[in-house]
Specification:
- The chain has about 210 residues and is α+β, with helices and mostly antiparallel strands.
- It has five helices and nine strands; from the N terminus they run H-E-E-E-E-H-E-E-H-H-H-E-E-E.
- It has helices spanning about 20-35, 75-85, 110-120, 125-130, 140-155; strands spanning about 40-45, 50-60, 60-65, 65-70, 85-95, 100-110, 165-180, 190-195, 200-205.
- A hairpin with a 5-residue loop joins strand 8 (about 190-195) and strand 9.
- Helix 4 packs across helix 5 (about 140-155).
């Protein structure tokens, strides 16, 4: 039997006032069903000229303060976020026929938070953060391979690879979060949480 919540939606939407709690529940279900990277999301940014761009990144942490991902601060997305801190995320889990959209404003995480995550990464990934001039043109693949080799020689102790100052994380503080469930005949179910000026979450139903 297809159980419904108090809004008439599928019971997977539950009856929660806090969208972060619902996100946590949906993410835990995705982790059980998605074969690869359930924390993958499409990140949309826009530069100062309002030219949009989108790419897939990995969510590394989330809590009441927002959704955190890491990158080279001088990459295309890094520069765009410095020019325009408004951004959007979209999670899509095909196995669950679900989608979550998050919109808000980003701020850079503290050095302490960035250091902690950076030091949890594998040696090769930490070296890669030094060697890759992310989003910049590359003359040849060998150029990158040589840089990786050079940084491995410079930081040959796997336990002592400092975090580059140009590599850190962004926290997207949400102003809206929308939960979407695939429906028969394209009659999808959509529940949107919007944060008001007092910081409270307001729920609303959307047409499919």
């Amino acid at each position: 039997m297809n159980q419904k919540n108090s809004l008439g939606l599928n019971n997977c939407f539950l009856d929660l006032e806090d969208p972060i709690q619902l996100f946590k529940i949906w993410m835990e279900e995705a982790e059980k069903s998605e074969p690869n990277d359930p924390n993958a999301l499409s990140l949309a940014t826009s530069n100062k000229d309002n030219s949009p761009s989108v790419r897939v990144v990995l969510l590394k942490e989330f809590n009441q303060k927002g959704f955190v991902f890491y990158t080279n601060l001088n990459s295309q997305k890094g520069n765009e976020l410095k020019e325009n801190p408004k951004a959007a995320m979209c999670f899509h889990w095909k196995s669950l026929l679900r989608q979550i959209r998050v919109s808000g404003t980003v701020i850079q995480v503290t050095d302490e938070v960035a250091d902690q995550y950076y030091n949890s990464r594998g040696y090769e990934s930490r070296i890669g953060a030094w060697a890759s001039k992310q989003s910049k043109e590359l003359d040849s693949r060998s150029e990158l391979i040589n840089l990786i080799r050079e940084f491995k020689q410079k930081y040959n102790d796997v336990n002592k690879v400092p975090r580059p100052s140009h590599w850190s994380g962004w926290n997207l503080s949400p102003t809206s979060i929308e939960f979407w469930l695939d429906g028969d005949s394209r009659i999808h179910e959509r529940l949107k949480y919007t944060k008001d000026k007092s910081g409270n979450w307001i729920k609303s139903l959307l047409n499919p």
